[in-house]
Design goal:
It is a single chain. By secondary structure, this protein is mostly helical. The chain is 55% helix and 0% strand. The longest helix is centred in the C-terminal third of the chain and has 21 residues. The N and C termini lie far apart (40 Å). The model has no long low-confidence stretch (mean pLDDT 79).
């Protein structure tokens, strides 16, 4: 099976909506870029890294939860470093 986004073969049981996990997140980022908050953007970047890791074996719900935990930590660090705009 070929990924419809990147056109590369090698689909596995880790596919999401018929795409490689990294391609799914890339598409999601592109589609949501217009309305995504900074928190969402941080989470999407984290999610892309999490699910593209070949050793990731958790389900997508767990990956999303972890991605938002990472995003919240990034926002807290920004605030601590003097940037008061938490959700640009």
């Amino acid at each position: 099976m070929v990924c419809p986004e990147c056109h590369k073969p090698g689909m596995s049981d880790r596919e999401i909506n018929g795409m490689h996990p990294a391609c799914f997140v890339k598409k999601m980022i592109h589609e949501e870029a217009q309305t995504a908050t900074l928190r969402d953007q941080f989470a999407m970047a984290a999610l892309r890294g999490i699910i593209s890791n070949k050793y990731w074996d958790y389900d997508i719900e767990r990956a999303v939860k972890l991605a938002y935990e990472i995003a919240d930590a990034m926002l807290a660090a920004r605030k601590q470093n003097g940037n008061e705009k938490e959700n640009d």
